[in-house]
Amino acid sequence: MPAKSRAQQMAAGAALAARRGEQKASELEGAARSMYDSMSEEELEKMASTSREGKPRHDNQSDD
Asked: 3-class SS at 2?
């Protein structure tokens, strides 16, 4: 699943780093912590590797 925003991509990158042992999981907060707890390394990799071109800083969820 590709990231919908830059913020989501960055959170996925932080969660992926923790999953790989490059960062302490205890340092994660908010969305990154939630992603770390609920997503596999493969899912995090797909989300973190999404191109940033054309992505908003934050996903506007008003159309849900």
From this structure: coil
